[in-house]
Amino acid sequence: MCKAFHGGRLVRLLLFNLMTDETDPVLGFACTWICRLARRCESIDVITMYRGAYDLPGNVRVFSAGRERGLSKAARVASFYRHLLRLLAAHQYDACFAHMMPLFAGLAGPFLSARRIRTVLWYTHRQRSAQLRLGLAMSWRTVSADASSFPYRTNKLRVVGHGIDTEFFSPVPPPRSQNEGGRIDAPGFEGLSKPPFPPGGGRAGDGGRLVVQVGRLAAIKHQATTIAAVAGTEARLALIGGVQAGASREYERMLLEMTRELGLEERCRFTGDRTATDVRDWYRRATVAVNMSPVGLFDKAALESMACGLPTVVCNPAFAPLMGDYTELLLTQDPEDVAGLRDRLQRLLALSDEERAGIGRRLGENVLREHSLDQLTARLLAVLGTGELPSPPGPLSHKGCA
After folding, report:
1. Do residues 303 and 280 make contact, with C-beta atoms less than 8 angstroms apart?
2. Run of H or E including 93
3. Which residues share a beta bridge with 247?
4. To 10 degrees, the CA torsion angle through 347, 351, 357, 358?
């Protein structure tokens, strides 16, 4: 347990969450965050926009605004206020943490302020909105993974990094005996993984080398750049992720046509949305990962691949502190730099398994130091309690963006 903010009492935390569903391929990680915070809090009450499947500790309660039941926006607002006012009447909270929920932070602001409950808003996205401006105005502090991933300049901002579950996202465990290989089945790529293979991936022969990119299929993720770059190699490519619900499938159709035009149909697989376990296993069987998210999208998918010991090529300069001696893994800031990406892929694919494993191991160590879930939990609790990062602040030294 963690001693709380006032007089040594334990923390009672009110938490607003967008989606509480551990099976969701994009937002399921929030349940892991709640579990980790629950270890260090007396209790957590969650008001979520959407409630799905979860297995949370006994000191966590979840109340839903009702999106999973198809309630209208007005009905969800009424449901939110019903839960909020009932909880505030029954409990005195030490703090409120709004995870990607500027709407709830804004709606609750006057009621929380009246009870002297400070709100810390987490927001990591490039999109500006009236909801975000209201949520920011009603919050005591705001936190984000990187200064570039919060779209407004404000002295309320504290940079806390991402929270990667490095116990889960980790290199493939070594075989328990000489009779056990490192095989992980690869749907759609039968025969690709041949036991044993080392952490960091990579089988002998170009036909066995696998490049992976994880993320929803969207133009901002620049899968087209990766497809064009891989076309100049003999490696295979797995694009892991589907189209966001409700979004146009035009970009996906364009990517499929592109693979046909470049003759990549037999070497490229579109997996659709996958569970976290599936994503981790794709990382573990891969040779190289690619993340072409631009400035402003400090994508945790790249951190997850690094945590799995996988050499990862990125183009967002926010990743520069993690690169260490491997600065060539960072492209220019142009996510459409096909030639630059192809050059880096060819050089990585030409390395030995041991050389790639060494690169991946160092990247994984840097992620563990800067962006582990334990580090994030400690930073969040410090900001919730004092408004500032821990002192000493640890490896992440950015206090915010004035």
Report:
1. no
2. none
3. none
4. -80
> Distance (Å, rounded) from C-alpha 76 to C-alpha 78?
5
116-172 pLDDT tens trace: 999 999 999 888 999 999 999 999 999 999 999 999 999 999 999 999 999 999 998
Instruction: Name residue, tokens 């927001």.
Output: 123
Instruction: Specify the higher pLDDT residue, 12 or 176.
Output: 12
Hey, what domains does the chain have and what are their CATH numbers? 12-163+372-386 (3.40.50.2000), 206-370 (3.40.50.2000)
d(CA 372, CA 56): 20
> What is the Cα–Cα distance from 393 to 402, expressed in whole angstroms?
18
d(CA 198, CA 357) in angstroms, rounded, equals 7
Please report the beta strands in 129-285, taking only residues with DSSP state E, as ranges in sequence order: 141-144, 157-159, 210-214, 236-240, 268-272
Residues contacting residue 63 through CB under 8 Å, at least 6 positions apart: 45, 46, 47, 48, 83, 87
Radius of gyration of the chain (CA): 22
DSSP line for 203-241: -SSGGG-EEEEES-S-GGGTHHHHHHHHTTSS-EEEEEB
d(CA 33, CA 21): 12
What pLDDT was estimated at residue 174?
73
Look up residue 73 and give its amino acid.
K
State the Cα–Cα distance between residues 264 and 281, nearest whole angstrom.
23
Distance CA 398, CA 395 (A): 9
Q: Tell me which of 10-19, 185-194, 353-362 is least confident.
A: 185-194
SS3 content of the chain, % helix, strand, coil (to 5): 40, 15, 45
Confidence of residue 27 (pLDDT cuts 50, 70, 90): very high
Considering Cα of 372, then 376, then 379, then 385, what sign does the dihedral take?
negative
